[in-house]
Amino acid sequence: MRIDLRSDTVTRPSKGMLDAMMTAKLGDDVYAEDPTVNALEDRVATLFGKSKALFFPSGTMANQTAIKLHTQPGEQLICDKYAHVYNYEGGGVSFNSGVSCRLVDGHRGMMTAAQVEAAINPPDFYHSPLTSLVTLENTTNKGGGACWDFNEIKNIRKVCDAHHLGFHLDGARLWNALIAKSETALQYGAVFDTISVCFSKGLGAPVGSMLVGDEALMNKALRIRKMLGGGMRQIGSLAAAASYALNHHYDRLKEDHQKAKEIASVLQQLEAVASVEPVETNIVIFKLNPNLDEALFLDNLKAHDILVSDMGSGKLRMVTHLDYTDEMHANLLEIVSK
Ligand SMILES: *Cc1c(COP(=O)(O)O)cnc(C)c1O
Asked: Distance between CA atoms of 25 and 5, rounded to whole angstroms?
């Protein structure tokens, strides 16, 4: 039995989800005539208290659209050095928007308001790029699924207001943070200008993300999505999968979090493991003892049909998800502890 813990993106649509996809009402979404997409967009906009949400084929495209919305070529955005928009979107910020990233040396992918403020270039100093956007990520991916302190987010919002900066949240795993911290989408909608969320991570849909924001911004987002090639036609079946995921796979995220914590506590006891980062959601990042051969460790796991991710700099990652069953969990804990 393969145990795939590389990412929460490896899930397959369940029977119930496939049924929902097969029976979805369809229309041409480029004409805004797909009733299933429209219903999901309305639902997610309402969830965040924003006027509009747009369905995207990927979280990357939703983030890239947001960055384009808030910036002009030559300008600069501020993000943590671990940010997905900087590390894992193929250099899209420079390709699509012609902007650079000012990286902040935060803690587990999270910055303080003081760090953000210090990273802003003085707008009248025309030698440096004009700062126009701050991007946060919650939960942080490379930061090991860490969740932000909401008060710090509010403080960063104040900095953005004082300096007229856009404020975007990469919320690919925001659902996990909401569950872990008992927070609401509404409170996030109230502080950010735009938020991207994914249905294809912990929620287990095969594809799909959304960008939410207010009317004027989202009307522009529609054109940018079109330019990036994200205008899709009869995609109600994809929206149906996302909608099913919200209905059936949201509350259970806490099970993923529980399993991740149990994995972490077993890893912590191993001589082979030097350190395990604190686990708040569904991501476990750990380091092996430096005298251990990492390739050998990974090969050993592979021999047991266990797959994990190598994050570089000696960090390994396991991510729990919908298709990681209780049985797999019991097996994993047993194999790893040996
Ligand atoms: C997965 C992810 C995305 C989007 O990824 P896609 O594969 O393009 O959907 C964005 N941000 C973070 C933090 C992610 O983990």
From this structure: 34
Residues 276 and 159 in one domain: no
Work out the number of other CB atoms within 10 angstroms of the CB of residue 38.
17
User: 58 in ligand 1 pocket by Cβ < 6 Å?
Assistant: yes
Listed residues 220, 248, 276: the one ending a domain:
248
* 231-247 residue pLDDT tens: 999 999 999 999 999 99
Label the pairing between strands 131-137 and 76-80: parallel
Candidate from 195, 198, 283 with most ligand 1 atoms within 8 A of CB, to mutate: 198
pLDDT at 2 over 90: yes
Domain count, the chain: 2
Amino acid at 239: A
CA–CA gap between residue 282 and residue 243 (Å, rounded) = 21
pTM > 0.90: yes
CA-nearest residue, atom 14 of ligand 1: 172
